[in-house]
Amino acid sequence: MKIGIAGLGHVGCGLIELVERQQNLRLPGEVQITGVSARSQSRNRPVDISPYRWFDDAATLAEDPDVDVFVELMGGSDGPAKFAVETALKAGKHVVTANKALIAKHGMALARLAEEKQVDLLFEAAVAGGIPVVRVLRDSLAGTEVKRITGILNGTCNYLTTVMLEQGREYDDVLAEAQRLGYAEADPTLDVSGMDAAHKAAILSAIAFSADLDFSKVSVSGIDKVSLLDLRLADRLGYRIKLIAEGVLTDEGVVCRVEPLVLPASHPLARVNGSLNTVRIEGDPVGAITLTGPGAGAGPTASAVMGDVAKMFRPAIRPAFGRAAHHMGRPFVQGAPTEVAPFFLRVYLPDQPGALAALTEALAKEGVSVDKLLQESGEESGAAPVVIVTHRCPRSNMQAALERLEKIAKPIDAPRLIRIEAAS
Amino acid sequence: MKIGIAGLGHVGCGLIELVERQQNLRLPGEVQITGVSARSQSRNRPVDISPYRWFDDAATLAEDPDVDVFVELMGGSDGPAKFAVETALKAGKHVVTANKALIAKHGMALARLAEEKQVDLLFEAAVAGGIPVVRVLRDSLAGTEVKRITGILNGTCNYLTTVMLEQGREYDDVLAEAQRLGYAEADPTLDVSGMDAAHKAAILSAIAFSADLDFSKVSVSGIDKVSLLDLRLADRLGYRIKLIAEGVLTDEGVVCRVEPLVLPASHPLARVNGSLNTVRIEGDPVGAITLTGPGAGAGPTASAVMGDVAKMFRPAIRPAFGRAAHHMGRPFVQGAPTEVAPFFLRVYLPDQPGALAALTEALAKEGVSVDKLLQESGEESGAAPVVIVTHRCPRSNMQAALERLEKIAKPIDAPRLIRIEAAS
């Protein structure tokens, strides 16, 4: 499959890198880059673009006979991006785009054009970065009646409000820092005004409700008017304020809006912090499904673009496990018996002098270092429950320590040894 | 598309109901049920099966000339379910199944048979009920290198440990209640032993790592040995104990296991309570994606089966928004200006006698009932921040109350009025 890539920013370069190591992926065939285009050929980039044919003009690349799939990563709802996508579709090329503004504003017209030309127009990367919500809604949930979608669809806004509350800092201060760190754009208007989230919400609503996407009907209110005081007072009363995107089916039609909402702290969307995105889909008979992940960034977005490119191979029958049986070569193996991890150990010790010392000594002799220890009062049986959280050590050391303990002060009941998963 | 359904338990009946109201779904074409099969024809069921041709034998239905897609909802890794699925594939029928044990144990052989016959074998409903993780992994993430999958894949186990900790009750007690309420099977062995979660983890691992599924290599340890004491002591130290399914890529091959793990309370999997399922996929370059939802139940599982059936229509080109442009008829409309909801109101009141009374009076006059109120000390400016959480009322009443307030005691700064989303 021959692809042409227009737009060589972070995502475009991320995609080239991914194509170059495609043997590690699970693609149904080989992807070749036959041409690239961007505003400047000479700009310094993290990938070497010299192996690829250069096009000064994206639209020329879009209709090049050597391109099967045109990948648009230029951005902007109108101008060159729109013209290039239209050119590609008219030339009978499949299109993959990450351009949310383009799809939100001109998606229906482009979809009709693609339909007429019998080509694919895919835009997984346009909504929520690495979270594959477009295809989940479009294909996986085709057998469910979607009632409502809510989500946190702008990572910048969520990052700003999270940091404001956690660090007790005002909006302007946190925004300026985010700009310095590259977490927010030099011109953050599209993000903080709610417009970016609105683009994404409109696209999801059109898919979920088979609705005639009309972006002019979407109401948009941003995060820029929420102050630290609001966040702090809401927090004190057990709430969080988040910029929430919503699409809901009403008797009149689809209502789509983006606005700050107050959520109970226990609400699934309230607990999504930092720059994460999340989408909650409520439907009948599926109930509620929540997808959470990185909503932006070169890697996640390139992954989503590549997922769409993979779909273009369009085999008549997709192998049940994704790849043909002769490619399913990796073996299942039994987990290695020795693992290095922190461990949780619970024992019942006889409620008598020296029992606890025997335990800590057994651990020390095997080089196990204790992070936390909690002993509760002895129970009626005369046994006292003790729990220990260790620092990282091999499981075999834990087992050796338990064997030692058996000999010195036989614990009552079998000890419980459980691995502790790292925080993430 | 003509489907035959074998197995008419909760999920089978849920599917029939869904087919009967398919005009509300987003299917690419019409689904017809041409035959059904189950152990007993006369059993009392929530749907009327008399309109459909009855087959005493699932395998006969599987190869009936009037069936395009055979839907297997019988269960059991061997015996009639396996024979019927093999019969369907050999007869060149596509197969959709919700049978995790069958796919975990015989998935590779069945996939080879499907490949040979050039038919589809789909099993979205076999893993995590309504959560479309099979297709996300197989298709959407084909362009990402998966490194590790972790998840809570058995709702019964998660329900048991959640209730034990929350209500301070022992395992046997909570299990007996769950059985009475129908949340746990009469014979809960498959669930509490970890075997059910292991089936699902093995299937996901095979897809994620293109690995030769060998269920005999999966190590399984259940929740049945975790006591209330363990859960309680872990909680006191800031941890949760959950039955975690894991698939990880190592140098030797794929390690797949199910075991109780101790998780920091802040870990994304630690916060998934009750009967929910969740799957966390870590990959390069996508980062980490988490999918959460109902892991079982007639509705969610039937939704997943229907998603697979929808895929069988296999149009050469899938419309960009899921349905052809002429089906995208629902309008986008602007949200109604009056909404009924609880509201969050923040004002700065002048720090003087009567200001707070003016606010509460203005609210009372407009019939707005106060749920919570918090006033902080006045700031240097002489203004005191006040926040009010109301009970449900129309937005227009809030606005009228604010207009009243303007007249009596002009608040400093613009008041902030934000809708409160219901807990969920």
UniProtKB/TrEMBL annotation, chains A, B:
Active site residues of this protein: 200
UniProt EC number: 1.1.1.3
Q: In which pathway does it act?
A: Amino-acid biosynthesis; L-threonine biosynthesis; L-threonine from L-aspartate: step 3/5; Amino-acid biosynthesis; L-methionine biosynthesis via de novo pathway; L-homoserine from L-aspartate: step 3/3
InterPro entries for this protein: ACT-like_dom_sf, ACT_dom, Asp/hSer_DH_NAD-bd, HDH, HDH_cat, HDH_CS, NAD(P)-bd_dom_sf
Per the database record, which ranges form the ACT domain? 344-419
Q: What is the protein name for this chain? A: Homoserine dehydrogenase
Residues recorded as binding L-homoserine, renumbered to this chain, are 185
Its keywords, alphabetically, are: Amino-acid biosynthesis, Methionine biosynthesis, NADP, Oxidoreductase, Threonine biosynthesis
Q: Which residues form a coiled coil?
A: none
The record ties this protein, via Pfam families, to: ACT, Homoserine_dh, NAD_binding_3
In its UniProt record, a GO molecular function of this protein is: NADP binding
Organism per entry: Hyphomonas jannaschiana VP2
